Amino acid sequence: MLVHQFTEHVLTNKEAIQPTENVEVALNFDGWGSSVDKMALYKKYVRDKPSQYGGFKIFYDKDEPVMTPEQVVKLDPSPAIVNYQ
């Protein structure tokens, strides 16, 4: 299950999101903008808030600059899912 978060308050009861026996959960940072801001928000919403897996979204027409695949996989932790729009 891919759970999208792009602002602080978009998810309520975030701690209640738990994987189950048949469902794996990825918390996906879904914001657009500067790569510096996106990396900081990934850290805030994904790395510093434990979840089963991390995810990261790239917007071809809204990110400035568009991060390269190499930059994305170097995030800590490296996202298990990268989606492009």
> How large is the radius of gyration?
12 Å
Molecular shape:
globular
Mean pLDDT: 86
- Main sheet characteristics: 4 strands, parallel
Binned, the helix content reads: 10-25%
Question: Which strand order do you get reading across the main beta sheet?
Answer: 1-2-3-4
How far apart, in Å, are the first and last alpha carbons?
18 Å
Query: What fraction of the residues are assigned to beta strands by DSSP?
Result: 15-25%
- Note the run of SSEs as H and E: EEHEHE
Contiguous low-pLDDT stretches (5 residues minimum) are none
Number of helices: 2
Count of DSSP E strands?
4
Alpha-beta content class: alpha/beta
Kindly describe this structure.
This protein has 85 residues and is α/β, with parallel strands linked by helices. The protein has two helices and four strands. The chain has helices at 35-47, 69-73, and strands at residues 2-5, 26-29, 53-58, 81-84. It has a four-stranded parallel β-sheet, with helices on one face. The chain starts with a strand and ends with a strand. 19% of the residues are buried. The mean pLDDT is 86.
How would you summarize this macromolecular structure in one to three sentences?
By secondary structure, the protein is of the alpha/beta class. The chain has two helices and four strands; from the N terminus they run ββαβαβ.
How do the helices and strands line up, and which of them pair or pack?
Blueprint: E1 2-5, E2 26-29, H1 35-47, E3 53-58, H2 69-73, E4 81-84
Parallel strand pairs: 1-2, 2-3, 3-4
